[in-house]
Amino acid sequence: MATLHTSEKTHRGMLPQSPALEPVPADNPGVGTKRGTGPVPIPGTGVHHGRGETGDVCACAPRRHPSKTDEPVETESGAVTGPVAVPLSVASRVFVLGVDGAALDPCHPARARRLLACGRARVAHHTPFVIRLIDRSAEQSVTHPLAVKIDPGSRHTGMVVARVDPEGRTHGLFAVQVDHRGRQISERLTARAGYRRRRRSANLRYRAPRWRNRHPAACDACGANAIHGRRFCRPCAAAKTPGMGARESRLAPSLAHRVDGTCSMVARLARWAPVAAAVMELVRFDLQALEDPGIAGIGYQQGTLAGYEIREYLLEKYSRTCVYCDRTGVPLQVEHVRPRSRSGSDRVSNLVIACDPCNNAKDSRSVEEFLAADPDRLAKVLAGLRKPLRDATAVNATRWALHRRLQAMFPDRVSVGSGGRTKYNRTRAGLPKTHTLDALCVGRTHAVNSYPAQLVIAVAVGRGVYSRTVPDAYGFPRLQRPRTKLAHGYATGDLVRAAIPTGKYTGTHTGRVMVRTSGAFDVRTLTGRVGANRRHCSLLQRADGWRWSRQEEGHSNDS
User: Fold this and answer.
1) What pLDDT band is residue 304 in, cutting at 50, 70 and 90?
2) Which terminus of the chain has a lower count of CB atoms within 10 Å, N or C?
3) Half-sphere exposure of residue 203: CA atoms within 13 angstroms, side-chain side
4) 366: domain range?
5) What order of strands is seen across the sheet that includes strand 495-500?
6) Model's pTM, two decimal places?
7) Is 152 helix (H, G, I), strand (E, B) or coil?
8) What is the number of alpha carbons within 13 Å of residue 532 lying toward its C-beta?
9) Alpha carbon distance, N-terminus to C-terminus of the chain
10) How many structural domains are present in the chain?
11) Can you give the CATH number for the domain in which 525 is found?
């Protein structure tokens, strides 16, 4: 890959600075460091806060770009050819708001520190860090339209706020990785169904299932009762109302959470930055090709069990032998390697043959727990299985729902890209595979100039639960939560800083707090839980349903 030579004075991580353009004076001498407490030192005019003004602006050498003959060229097929510079790792930008709350262009962390030091800005949000100017509005500033680029996934979704310069180069400004909790939602719904089923069967009298009492949703077209799991009623479906089809189906709670969490984060970024468009990877997985890469033609129609029944297929596959104890000549049963109670499927790839004692001994445990003392047999069992397709299925089920939601947020300003184009752009730029770097390379990208050195990890933790009763492992009541969530002015999930003067946990600790009415709080930090009294805690940020942390770019997580 060719390298573009630049001058030693050129800072490739900085975007081209616009000339001074301000309709009113940049500084208001009457505004104090604290409102009404004296004038602010005038740091020098001649700059605007499209990028944030701090005064004492030095005249930097103009950036040197490659010649026209060296610029990347897009062919008719959409591929980009020509030499590409190696992307530069730069500091993650800080979001900036105007005095009216409108989003301005993000600025460098050093510039944000200088704005705070001279009293021209206030901290608006702790994590991610957002500042608010006290003497400049959006009308008095010059902003540039940004785009949020999204790489949706089943467990993790990468997002990058990026800017494309006039030369077509992409500059990554801020990166965030959203960790979904769809699996937790599915497991909790399964546990709740088990609790209710036990309560119904424990009663002496018959109790009808509660799902029969649910009122159907209204049809989106006429307002009548809609078909279960659909958005339209039967007459509208028969009339082929526009928009009908599988894309209009309702999503399960665990799948809807992925769409809601992604759109919620996009809305946050749009409030903090002048985001004008969205680019997402509209990927579709071929589930059969994932199982058998060489499948083709009639193989898509026949499948694995062509000419077999499930039981006979498994008996022949495992030579009529128990996979857990190698016993033969005994009655064998079809056994789920991943139990149904743990979201296991009925696919043939999740089924084995086991004898009755081994099946009962395994119970609802995973195969890793059951064969923990026999790693050789565990490896043998896992080698005969195929990779689960849960994640690929979740992405296929939510891709169009996410696209519709983004279209509602950015009308006619949502573009899509394929997974092959993303991989081509990332490989061409020489970037490692991560969720956020994949998001940076989504869509038509001529060249990637820079990417954030750090990314923000946003783990979805929810906003608490409605139930006050906490059950034990068997579903029986264990304790009762208080009626109010606030305790001494704090709620579980708030971001606090605990300054503990003495004791086992002496020092300053920052993390999410777990409150108690007694005042003995627990602060969850990156290294573990720390016990702290309420008197030693100070509030940094209210709970917002996310657990925030930072990570260096380049570390790959499970997809």
Assistant:
1) low
2) N
3) 10
4) 305-383
5) 528-533, 520-525, 507-514, 495-500, 537-541
6) 0.70
7) coil
8) 30
9) 28
10) 2
11) 2.30.30
